[in-house]
């Protein structure tokens, strides 16, 4: 009996201990979950470039590029302290840089070692992805590494403006370097970050700061990170990255000819396997003709399509072999010319329609599906242009994607095709002039005039921020069409590249001198694109300069700028507060106060006091601990520098008032 009691007592004691462990685990789980919720709330709203990530459809064909992929993997896994932390993979267009980048990203994602994959694209330059690159990488790293996530959330609690600042230096220091330093030791092994096609970010000014940061000593000290960067060897990129000791350069132009031809042979054999007219001898001729350019080989396979009009496969092959041989770009140009000559006549109405549709595609600042392209075209001022783009695009499948269905954006399969069309020196017969965006500016303004309305998504309460409205993404998809979203973001960009014309100036007046200007800001708040308003309104003011009769439109644009300067945080956070807070608190004497406030009922009224005009003070810069003795603007007006008797020099963002970097110390 005593043995039984002892056994029961032991079991009871063990059960009590297990129950206590269970309760402790529950408490820990609650604490961990609470931390996750708080971290989620802190990171929420941080700028993120959607659609810029890994695309497994772009991977290398299996068993190709083996040697170079092995070299890159060896570099990534190199644990020696003097191993370079950045590998710059460069080469001319068509060498397969992106395919290698996406293959590496895919492999390391499967193994759990991919921190982030970020891709630039020529047809996405209107999104200013360069401003979101570091915030996107930071969010991706936070999704993989809890310690980094906590450090990032802490940085955003201390300074919430970091979520949306376009200042790359602040992003680099506060969102990448400092969280990585705090997470040191918790991240095991080397983490891969892929940055693909940096040369497609836009003009060299768009990547100047990115290159400066990657070449800096801060990047050299990132021991746990391995940056794989791909681009063409443009002068500004080569100048910044070519001589840094912590950057390893690898050129695809230097790959031995026999290795490149072996891989292209595998690719072409697979692509043309179903064509009985093409045997090993023809495949070898195509391989030799390609000069190591994978993009040329892909185009050649498309060119031999048996469904081509009016020619047999053998005849197409003969035409392919007749293309003049050349190096790199010249060879690609010859292929593009041959493809276009096979489907596009060089005169008459079909040629004019080809030029018109290609001009529309090249001028788009964000790719749209065929349905949306047709809608925009139906609003062009010239009715002769109102035809279905499919009559041209269905013949362009060798060089464009998104043509088979009406929901995918129409994009070039390779950026070099748009470069070919837009460069007169490379292409005389099919050159597309993109110097005047009149038609797209006109169509965008027509969309705003017809589709903008009050409370477009039917929000029921102003008590919730945009991010807290549970069904907002579905509501945006239902109520804000892709062409309306596009027009709201880019109408002023197209206006800027259009000659002044009354036919465009009149719809600008209609939008800017009515409540539609507020409906426009509402849409931008909902889709998270309010940051572009400053540039849009500034462009409009410049475009109207010197033209009589548009003083009220100019005044409305300037009022819009002041509204954003004073109420940007409220409008960004919650679209309803554009009407409930910003509008009623605008100065009585402003255009908004005089013309637009009376059009809205049940607004709060300022019974006493209030602003008569916009305050002259736009920003207050607060950090100096003593008298400020000198102030200057940078030549482009984007920065302010101040010197003080507190023995510091400080640099500020002229738009947001945020201090950039740490104070400069040393003066006495």
TrEMBL record:
The keyword Repeat applies. WD repeats lie at residues 621-662. Signal peptide: none annotated. Residues 70-232 form the Nephrocystin 3-like N-terminal domain. PROSITE patterns: WD_REPEATS_1, WD_REPEATS_2, WD_REPEATS_REGION. Residues 1-28 form a coiled coil. Keywords: Coiled coil, Repeat, WD repeat. It holds the Pfam family NPHP3_N. PANTHER family: AMELOGENIN (PTHR10039), GPI INOSITOL-DEACYLASE (PTHR10039:SF16). This is Nephrocystin 3-like N-terminal domain-containing protein.
């Amino acid at each position: 009996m005593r043995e039984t009691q002892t056994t029961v007592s032991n079991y009871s004691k063990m059960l009590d201990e297990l129950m206590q462990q269970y309760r402790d685990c529950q408490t820990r789980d609650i604490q961990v979950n609470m931390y996750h919720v708080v971290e989620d709330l802190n990171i929420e709203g941080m700028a993120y470039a959607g659609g810029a990530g890994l695309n497994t459809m772009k991977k290398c064909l299996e068993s190709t590029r083996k040697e170079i992929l092995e070299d890159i993997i060896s570099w990534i896994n190199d644990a020696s302290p003097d191993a370079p932390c950045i590998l710059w993979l460069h080469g001319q267009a068509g060498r397969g840089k992106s395919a290698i980048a996406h293959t590496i990203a895919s492999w390391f994602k499967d193994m759990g070692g991919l921190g982030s994959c970020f891709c630039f694209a020529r047809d996405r330059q209107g999104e200013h992805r360069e401003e979101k690159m570091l915030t996107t990488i930071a969010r991706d790293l936070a999704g993989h590494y809890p310690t980094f996530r906590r450090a990032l959330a802490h940085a955003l609690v201390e300074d919430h403006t970091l979520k949306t600042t376009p200042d790359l230096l602040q992003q680099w220091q506060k969102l990448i370097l400092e969280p990585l330093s705090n997470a040191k030791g918790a991240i095991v092994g080397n983490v891969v970050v892929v940055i693909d096609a940096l040369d497609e970010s836009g003009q060299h000014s768009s990547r100047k700061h990115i290159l400066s940061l990657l070449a800096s000593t801060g990047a050299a000290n990132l021991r746990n990170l391995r940056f794989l960067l791909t681009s063409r060897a443009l002068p500004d990129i080569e100048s910044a990255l070519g001589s840094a000791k912590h950057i390893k350069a690898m050129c695809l132009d230097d790959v031995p000819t026999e290795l490149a031809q072996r891989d292209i042979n595998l690719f072409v054999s697979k692509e043309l396997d179903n064509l009985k007219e093409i045997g090993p001898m023809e495949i070898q001729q195509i391989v030799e003709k390609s000069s190591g350019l994978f993009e040329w080989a892909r185009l050649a396979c498309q060119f031999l399509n048996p469904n081509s009009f009016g020619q047999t496969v053998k005849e197409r092959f003969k035409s392919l072999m007749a293309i003049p041989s050349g190096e790199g770009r010249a060879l690609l140009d010859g292929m593009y010319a041959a493809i276009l000559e096979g489907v596009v006549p060089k005169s008459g109405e079909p040629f004019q329609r080809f030029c018109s549709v290609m001009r529309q595609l090249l001028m788009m600042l964000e790719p749209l599906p065929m349905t949306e392209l047709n809608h925009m075209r139906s609003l062009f001022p010239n009715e002769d242009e109102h035809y279905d783009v499919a009559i041209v695009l269905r013949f362009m499948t060798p060089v464009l994607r998104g043509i088979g269905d009406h929901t995918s954006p129409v994009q070039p399969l390779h950026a070099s095709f748009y470069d070919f069309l837009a460069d007169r020196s490379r292409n005389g017969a099919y050159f597309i002039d993109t110097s005047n965006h009149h038609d797209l500016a006109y169509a965008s303004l027509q969309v705003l005039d017809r589709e903008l309305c009050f409370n477009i998504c039917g929000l029921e309460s102003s008590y919730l921020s945009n991010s807290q409205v549970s069904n907002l993404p579905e509501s945006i998809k239902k109520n804000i069409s892709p062409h309306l979203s596009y027009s709201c973001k880019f109408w002023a960009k197209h206006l800027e590249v259009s000659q002044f014309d009354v036919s465009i100036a009149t719809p600008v007046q209609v939008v800017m001198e009515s409540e539609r200007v507020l409906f426009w800001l509402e849409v931008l708040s909902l889709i998270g694109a309010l940051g572009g308003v400053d540039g849009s309104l500034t462009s409009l003011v410049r475009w109207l300069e010197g033209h009589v009769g548009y003083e009220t439109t100019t005044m409305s644009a300037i009022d819009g700028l002041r509204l954003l300067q004073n109420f940007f945080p409220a409008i960004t956070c919650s679209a309803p507060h554009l009407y409930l807070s910003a509008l009623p608190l605008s100065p009585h004497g402003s255009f908004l106060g005089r013309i637009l406030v009376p059009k809205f009922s049940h607004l709060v009224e300022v019974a006493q006091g209030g602003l008569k005009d916009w305050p002259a003070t736009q920003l207050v810069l607060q950090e100096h601990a003593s008298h400020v003795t000198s102030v200057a603007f940078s030549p482009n007006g984007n920065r302010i520098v101040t010197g003080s008797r507190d023995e510091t020099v400080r640099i500020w963002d002229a738009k947001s008032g945020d201090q950039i970097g740490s104070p400069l110390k040393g003066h006495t």
